[in-house]
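This protein record is not my work; I was only asked to verify it. The record follows directly below this note.
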Amino acid sequence: MKYDVIGDIHGCFEELNELIIRLGYQFQDGIPLHPEGRNLAFVGDAMDRGPDSLAVLRLLFKMQDENTLYYSPGNHCNKLYRFFKGNRVELLHGLEITVAEWRQLEKSEQKKFRDRYIRFYEELPLYHQLRDDLIVVHAGLRHDMIGKTLNRHMIIFALYGEITGEYHSDGRPVRGNWARTYKGEQWIVYGHTPVKTAYFKNKTVNIDTGCVFGGALSALRFPEIELYSVKSKQPYQKDRFHQFE
């Protein structure tokens, strides 16, 4: 199987559609299909911050219904899940935008969407091993975690990456660079930390090129290791991009 792995979308529905078409997919009954049998995969965080989170999620729901979805959930996915389950969650870091969009629906549609999202999230694996040489995860996965029984530490690592325990002034956690010490044989494609250009290190690649912050929405074509991107339609915020050493 050949895959096209798309980075963090964060509600950028127009850019997502543009990228899917650029990759050669055609929509049939609302489902993107490739004439050569390629498959789309996603590193997670479909929602929050951007203008059209519900539209992105509805597309993913359709793909899940048709068994064509390969999606690894991110920290924003987890937070929306906890909100919909009735847990106390702070409406910050873009969640407030998704919730406001959801609250504009009629009450019956709110319930329908909430219930569908809960099912969507609960059916997702923490990460996808799509081939012997390809793993798709949201924020990262150390080589010694691959194939192991899930535990709390693995879940946190996959959703948030390497956390140092320190925080930026705006409340975002300072993130370590787990890819520098990765020694696995499988390629790991991930996102979570916005970078200006895709970051390659030790058979890992971060493809979150900050679409919602005015960068680009990017995809990695695998096994070709080719990058495809479309320019963001969102305002540029240069301070949101991380520079790895």
